[in-house]
Amino acid sequence: MPVDENGGRPPAASTPLARDFFDRLAHEVAPDLLGRVLVHGPVALRITEVEAYGVPGEDPASHTYRGRTPRNAVMFGPPGHLYVYFTYGMHFCANLTCLPEGVGSGVLLRAGEVISGAETALARRSAGSGRPVREADLARGPARLAVALGLAREHNGLDACGPGSLSVTEGEPAKAASILSGPRTGVSSGKETPWRFWIDGDPTVSPHRPHVPRRR
DNA sequence: CTAGAGATGGACT
DNA sequence: GTCCATCTCTAGG
Hints:
By secondary structure, the protein is of the alpha+beta class. About 15% of the residues lie in helices and about 25% in strands. It is built from three helices and eight strands, in the order αβββββααβββ.
């Protein structure tokens, strides 16, 4: 039995966008990002793995589950913006908002293949850490991706579609036949939803790790 | 290869 | 106080 997931109180009231509706949107919008190219300064990467995070009261794993806060405000904003959050006391992870303003959702950028600016990405990933970084590992995992791309706190809210330092380009969208889906990585709830999408066989896709509760 | 634990800060109960 | 949408290193098979 899981511990009470909501502090003894019911989740925030559902929006009109019910779980099944979000589910349909997630299965269109999130995988559509696969194969597209994200450019930030000198580094460009081809997105190979994403996860959808859903709406208040419907997705217990989402930062928006309990409603809007200063931290998750960007997820309630218009689509095409970056939601960058700080976690585990040392990592940043980046999401793109993809659904209409007010919905409260995002797509976590979990992994990518660096296709230009590899030297910059390598320098960033190697900084402070000893061992050599394999090319396929440059952006393999959400926190690594953020480092490789040079994304941090100051990029929260950045417009990824307008004139800015970040942009999502068409790239070559992954063919549907090469896209697989499954449970999300490292989440302690909402395990049943197959909202992780990745390009089958791509070496830059991160290994799936189930959530492990902290001890002591 | 797998399993376990430390790092480290902030959002939230 | 507790829990992280993680990463890296170490020990062991």
